[in-house]
Amino acid sequence: MFYDLNLPVSTSTGSAQAAQEQLETRKRVELLVHLGYQAVAYNYELTGKIPANHVSPVSKLNLPGVNLKQFSRLTLVVDDVSQNYGLNANNPSVLSYDILAVQPTNEKLFQAACGTFEVDIISLDMAARLPFYLKHSTVGLAVERGIYFELCYSAAIRDATARRNLISNAQSLIRVTRGKNIILSSQAMKAMELRGPYDIVNL
């Protein structure tokens, strides 16, 4: 069974823009189904703390006759080690999503994500040079806790430098995880950035 667990969505309020984004999302989802995927997660991204009383704004598509599992996902970009991000199962805002991911921006937050944050996925910007080294001791904590690391491929399609960085960072991640607990997602903003699951396996 093939999943794409990172299909970015926004929550525009302007009717024309919202309609256009909904149409683009539908195009991406229809192509994923055509390519053989059986599940998709709509990814809503926030930076910093989760606002009080936040509820998932992600809406799932009405796809009559299509056998596709649809999930909502929150990716929280964390950038301040002193903040309490509320990444635990007691936070009702977290419970409004099916999947919780975190994107740490420095080494201390990466260590916290691996060791203490209650998340499903750790997502790093693999298309850029990482600001810290990946260590087996740190990554091993996350693997033991059942957390997965995410590699997103769409940036590598858009840019040659991003492709080189992605391949280099992926090699480092595979080395320190010994190939365990890694998922491949698209993070595709447009349908043309999507690829079939076997193409991704070859990559």
Automatic annotation (TrEMBL):
Superkingdom field: Eukaryota
Gene3D superfamilies listed in its UniProt record: Metal-dependent hydrolases
Keyword tRNA processing found: yes
Location in the cell: Nucleus
Keywords, alphabetical: tRNA processing
InterPro entries: Pol/histidinol_Pase-like (IPR016195), RNase_P_p30 (IPR002738)
Gene Ontology biological process terms from the UniProt entry: tRNA processing
Stated family: Belongs to the eukaryotic/archaeal RNase P protein component 3 family.
Protein name in the entry: Uncharacterized protein
Organism of origin: Podila minutissima
